[in-house]
Structures are given as C-alpha cells and as structure tokens.
Known about the structure:
Blueprint: H1 2-23, E1 27-33, E2 38-44, H2 48-68, H3 72-76, H4 78-83, H5 86-110, H6 117-148, E3 157-158, E4 163-164
Antiparallel strand pairs: 1-2, 3-4
Helix pairs in contact: 1-2, 1-6, 2-6, 5-6
Keywords: Membrane, Transmembrane, Transmembrane helix
Transmembrane segments: 48-68, 80-97, 117-134
Amino acid sequence: MFMAYFQKLNQIAYASALLAAIAAAPRVTLHLELSEQLTTVEFDYPPFGPLLVYAMVLTTLAMAPSSLIPSSLPRRFPKLCFMAMVPWAGVALSNFFDNFLLQIRAIVHVSRGNHPQAIIFALFIYVGLFVCAIEQVMHWVAVHFLITEETLTCFAYCPKSSRYL
C-alpha cells in the first residue's frame, strides 16, 4: 500500500515539475550595440514556487480520475473525467508555443552575434520537455480509456495480483 502512494506522489511530482518547466515564461531583454552590430539577449525567469504550486493543482486535477478517486466514477462519467486533464494539456500546449516563438525570435536577433549556440541548445531541451509532456498526456489518456472500458480496475498497485501497472 505504501508503494502505491509513493508511486502516485512520484507521478504528481514528475508531471508538476514538467508543467512548471514548460510554463516558465522568461522576460527577455535584447541588448543592441549599433557600433559593433552585435545583439545579446538576457532571460529573466519568474519565481518558480508559485508556478510549481499552480502546476501541482493542475496535475492533481488531471490525475484525479485515474489515480485518486474510486474507479467507478470514471465509468459513470467518462467525458467529465476525460475533461479533467484538458486544463493541464492546454496550459502546456499554449505556454510551449508562446515560449517556443519567444526563443525563435531571440535566436533570430542573436544570430548575427557571436554565440547563438546556447539559445539553440536551450530550444532543443525545451522541445524535449514538450515531448515528455505529450507522452504524459498520452499516458493519462491510455489509462483513462483502460479504466472506462473496464480493462483496468486499478492503477498503480493492485493488491490481488501483487503487481504494478
């Protein structure tokens, strides 16, 4: 039983950290030097604590139908339980596109400078985080459909079969 709670907390922590990392929108400052035709960019990120709390609330809402409430509710209200993960996915998707475009603009402005490689590397890491978020949503969708089709009766630790799902 302890392992089931630990696994659920681990999933909430992973998805919350992932959403907070995607949603962190920096304030960008461009420094232009006309004499040298050189542009540098500076990213200032907001405090991470309130963003992490916001991400935890959305993650708990998204995971509630499959992990935190009895499995009879998703069978009775499948559309309502499916809609619980939409805010998490919507925040991740909208913030990803905003931040992606922001980084592309920064790369375009800094490309004339001498070191755009760090921003390009950060963009690749950011795209990797978004791929992990897509995988997380697809996992929740798969678990939701398995529960609503009564293929899966419990998620995490199933005491009758003594195995993890």
